[in-house]
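Quality-control log, excerpt.
Job 1 of 2 completed; input and output follow.
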Amino acid sequence: MNNTISIRVFLLLSVIAICQGALVGAEAPITVDTANLLVSIDPGACHWSAEVKGTPMRLNEVYFLPDDDASGWKVVSSVNQDDSSNLGSFVTVTLRGTKPGRLDFEYQISVSKTGTDLLVSLGRSNNTGKPADIGNMDYFISNDARLGGTTDKWISLGTMSRNEEYYDLSWVVDLVTPKMYQVNQVVKNVDTGNSLLVGHVTTLKGSSRFEVAHGWTGKVPDRMQVRGYCSYKVTMPPGKSFPGEKLLIEFSNDAIRAMEHQSDLIAIAHDIRLKQRRPIDLEDKELVSGNYVRFSDQGHRTASQFLKTYGLYDFYYPQPREPSQSPQPRVGPWGVYGLGGTIRGSPPRLSYPAECYLSIHTRKYLGDKIIDFSNPLTIKLERERAFQNAVGNENATGTIEMDYVDDWDKWPGQYDPYMSALETYHAGAAPWRELIDQKSPRRTNRSNMALIDYGYGFVDICRISADSDGGFEEKDGGYNFWFTESVQGGAIRAFYNGRVFWNDLDSFHVYSWESPGWVPNGGYGTTGRFNYGQAKVSANFKAFAGNTVYVMEAPNDPLLNREFDAKYPDNRIELLKRVSPPTMDVSYPVDLFVRKPAQIWNMPVERPFGKWSVLGVFNFTNDLNRVSKLAWRPFETFGFTARLDAAKDLRLDPNKEYVVYEFWSKKLIGIFKGTFETRPLNPYDCDIYSIVEKQDRPVLISTSRHIRQMAFDIKDLSYDDQQRTLRGISRAVAGDPYQLRIYVPDGFSGKRVQLSEGLAGTMKTDGNLLMVDYTSSTGKDVEWKVFF
């Protein structure tokens, strides 16, 4: 008995000693307390939690180790209280872990000092002495993410990598199976606006993935599961290491601004500086025409002839390009992985030796070869191929199209198995970036069908939707109906525009269209007509939501012996006049979390002389089968209207009054404060509003030149209180009637107008609206003064 007691005492003392030793060796929990965030980290368990102070928004018990198993790991922590970079000011906690036979990790959590950002990265080092395969790697997993309220009021959407992959509006309560997106996933409480964004900031080696699901087994209605991880598909040699991607976790009360913020961080991390390096400089007409405005007649008539015939030459600038041909035919399906030749002016890769290709031919690419950009020889030859493109084009404008499409992936047999799909894509893209930056600085790199997030820093203009020029709603030859392709692609990728690249929503038509010959329906394609409403919606949306203008028309088709009117209707030519060229202002989808597709787009405009907004409201269809409806909203097809909050929806001061003018109806709509209700819209129609702050003196509220209104044509604007004079400088097109629309408050009236260039103007009044009309004969800028 005494022996038994002694053994028990010994065992108890041993357990106590072991526990005491473990406690001595374990690191104490770390607390980070910033202006808005409270984060607690348990280094030993490799767990952390975060909350936005004073709100119900939080992530609890986040982990990253496989199976949430920290046993056997030796973890050392450190804290950097002043981690400042161009991404912001942070407190950064670093956990370094080692375990025999496993890859070492370096895990970082950077907590914003001033905002609500959390940046997470996970680096790996191979000190095992043997190669290691790395597939998917978790960066953060939480089974307890909260926004306040319950998941039946939380709605989710996200962004995919391929340009023809779009988004769904999903109630979190319905996500029993996790929903995955590749660029970001955003969850919003529709009652409070509380939101959580998980997304990437860098794309250097690992392709990110983000999953959201309902709470554990559906028994907890106030929380959800969130996961962020990266796919690598590499074999890591001994002694190698990588720092991992920077992934973003951001709580906010404005989900759309959070997406824009993510894009700003992407641009900073990849040193893009789009507006500085690739500006849409309206003073450089050749640059704008060559890079951001395209007019194609599908090869049946020169664009120059069409523009001159219909008086469009100066609207699309006087450098229209004639159809160009590649010196070599395109070989293989797109020439993507194999023989190349899709880049105009560049030879195909016919001369590349066999070692530049993988030894496999996949059915996925119809047997086309797969090029290996992990091979230094391939990169060398690609650089030579790219730089051939510069010969004779050093001062030219225009776009170079990188010929890599959607399905860039990792394949067995690479020269360097440690290079991921991201890295091999970047290796193939880098020569084309170098070509433009070093040899042809006035050209832009345009991506037509590439994985969008693979092109950060390499691409200047990005196609963000699939082909959309095969009709409006007709589904023919493999094309989906138009608004699904362009509107969904434009809506879910609007946050990129003007930050990471200029968004290209593909071409549009205002009258006649023709499916290209390569659509998989056999034969050359089909032709059709747009009615005016479809043309109006198409032209306005493409020019408003994107920042390139690409018109594709088929004015006649003698090759196919089809009959097309020789003369385009005047109202279609008027549409073409009012949408070109773009400016550097960008719009966002106001109702992205309300409707699919989004129908309301706001464009904040800021100039040295003032701020205002341009608002586009669209009714895309009259087919109820094509209208997506959430369970809590009725169909809104006929008489579509919306009530918009000045602050939340339009980013305006709710305490100020604003004057509203509608462009196409040429009507002063009125004045609002706090909320604005749009006019009812029938199917196939749109309104473009100008929204300007009301003053106690006359204010310019609209002009007639462009749907972006004053954002395009007003170069300077001021008001002289002493002389009661409104003055400005306007861009002009020779022979195009031009109108200034001025809101005149009570107590003022227009007396006379004075114009430069010896021009004469007329004035007329309709209530509080003063209209000043003139026509420039030269197209030079017009200085004007209106006296009151």
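Job 2 of 2 completed; input and output follow.
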Amino acid sequence: MTTAQPEASPASRPPGHLARLKPGNLRVADVRVFSSASDAPRARRPTDVVLLVLAIVVITALSFAAPGHGRLDHAVVSLVKALPGLAGWLWEISYDLLFVWALFVLGVSLFAHARKRLLFGELLAGGLAFLIAMTAGEAAGSAWSDGLRSLTSSDPPSVYPAMRLAIAAAIIVAASPHLSRPLRTLGRLVVTLGALASITLGIAEPIGVVTGIAAGLAGAAIVHLLLGSPGGRLSLDQVAQALGDLGVEATDLRYAPLEPSGVSLVLATAPDGGSLLVKIYGRDAWDGQLLTSIWSSLWNRGETPEFGGRLHQVEHEAFVTLFAERQGVPAMPVVAAGMAAGRDAVLVVATRGAQPLARLDPGRIDDALLSRIWELDARLFDLRVAHGALDGFRIAVSANGTPAVGDFSQATVSATDAALRADRAQLLVSTALLVDHARAVTIARDVLGADAIAEMLPYLQPAALDRATRHAVRAQDWDLDDLRQLASEAAGVELPKLEQIRRVTWASILMLAVIGLVAYAVISAVANVGLQSLIESFKNADLAWLALALALSPTVGAAQAFATIGACIKPVRFGPVVMLQYAIQFVALAVPSSAARIALEIRFFGKVGMSSAGAIAVGVIDSICGFIVQMLVILVVLLSGMATLDLSTSSTSLPDFTGKWLLVAVVMVVLLAVVVLAIPRFRTYLRDQAKDKTADIRDGLRVLHSPTKVLMILGGNFVSQVLFAIILGVCLRAFGHQLTFAELLLTYNLVSLFAGFMPVPGGMGVAEAGYTAALVAFGVPHTAALSTAMAFRLVTYYLPPIWGGAAMKWLRGREYI
């Protein structure tokens, strides 16, 4: 690859040259106000969904601490005011600039040709931000009149949230995808300075500033999702100008039908009649490859974000393409690559009339062509080049049936085995979509060999496929499980465990959010008590009572064993079931997931001749009956008046979960259930699963016809709850306090029920905070309540794995698991 200066004639430039233009070559025509033409296509982008969700989460989370005036607010205000060399007049100008820049953006949209839709979107975003901010302020106790006053005044007192900042941010962010990159950057600077000015001038506390920006982002994101936003795609005239800057002659320019995020694809014709594919990484592309790369790297294991800008991406793709081509891999050759005068990065490749594999007539896709495609993949594998998106659109087939690889934008050299095998999984699914899936598997096995197919199996999963391929699979009469089964049979191996490709899942995000709230509650409780006071409380505790609590802890497993025996339709011995309960306590801490516990139970009950569905039914029956017993105990204690719980006396540092939040939670659960049942795919899956397991579940439910079995289930669960309540009372006595048995029973059942609904393994943190709040509500001092909660969890959850590990060894030695 050589580097040519723009002064060189086009004829002197060899194929594959990299051209860069000097900054002085900027023309007046390259100065842009808008990123795209007024009639440019719009799209609803994932980044807007992410922004909206984050904004809602931020506003909701900050509502607990609103309207502010906390220590963090005071520290931030002091830091901003201490910034050197910045006079008060500068902050006043910065605050006024919010209003001025918002008016400028509106004015540009008003007077520009055919931009009235943009103007409507900006006004709508501002109105939505106003409503969101006013609602947040109302929830925090701020008056509407104060919010309206802050729109025109820059004088204290502070208001929650920052209203002018919210509306201005909404207008500026709503217009950002339509504006050129320099104007977008300037708008962000104005919002940043306006936020600092709001704090310095005392117009809003830091918490109000963050909420105001979040309200603005939410309003703009809603508008982008409703109306769509352009992607900064150049017009065909601008593309022709950029090609001229690189010395590429082309005619008959037209947009290509398939465009990745942040990249424009244009088809053109070379002077010799050959076909060209032009990729433009636009300077003003709103949802660019960098954002996509960062999101993918955060979501998937083994991926790293690509930094370096537009030119770096073009150079990277050109390098990998030339490298693969020189190593004998058929690839679409690079004609030119570089940066045009308008700061748009351009890559031109010669397609030579080849058609994407996915658009070929099915009759042309024969076994010979598929074999050549897998030979091409084998060559890439040997070179350690992972393509990253090896599907039917990245493989092109020439008129003589020769396949070639294109679009190396996501490729990596010296790739890991995981990336290379994920490539193969993507290619196998892509070929299975075009021909019979059994035929696709057979040809792949014949070319690569059984060992290669076996190594690929753990990556044959949705996480290894791009979005378009996943959607295409859903339209087939087969699914990935069917394809995986065929591949395992072709390789002559059993189905292996799937490789964990996803770094992040929605469940892990939810768990992280819950853990954050729990950590906040626990840390706040400890801060209110004081670490030294907590240490002194344990030093002064009666060790005899704590020893008794620890000695009583193993008895709970015996009671739970009776309930499990009652839920099992097959006869099982009491001793091994007790050991199973202890082993479950070990698994719950060593491998904190419900899947580990279910696997242990399936293994245990499988030894007594039960199917996996029957073993799961034992756990389900036991859990449901335990839930019923808990609810009955709570209702009996509350309705009889034996104990009353006054949470208003609990720690003020804990969030105020009033009835409206409970109502919101119930509504969200109902809506989630409705959505799941309304989606045909989910509804069909649930129906099929129920159909497959009906016989086993029906067999397991026969235990409910036996009064003895029902008595064992209910009695075992009730006795275990009584024992837990006794242990809680013993721990409380160790710190010099006591409650009635009804109060202890209510405390344990309420907290265990609440912690069971939280997506946190073992209720870690949730249970400690819950026991503390409940005990304080019954009149126990904060220090004793927190100490009791920690001691109770220690003897019932954190220490039982000691004998649980011995139980696991006992079960293995006697082949029960």
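Post-run check on job 2. The beta strands are 3-4, 17-20, 251-255, 264-269, 275-281, 334-339, 345-350, 355-356, 395-397, 403-405.
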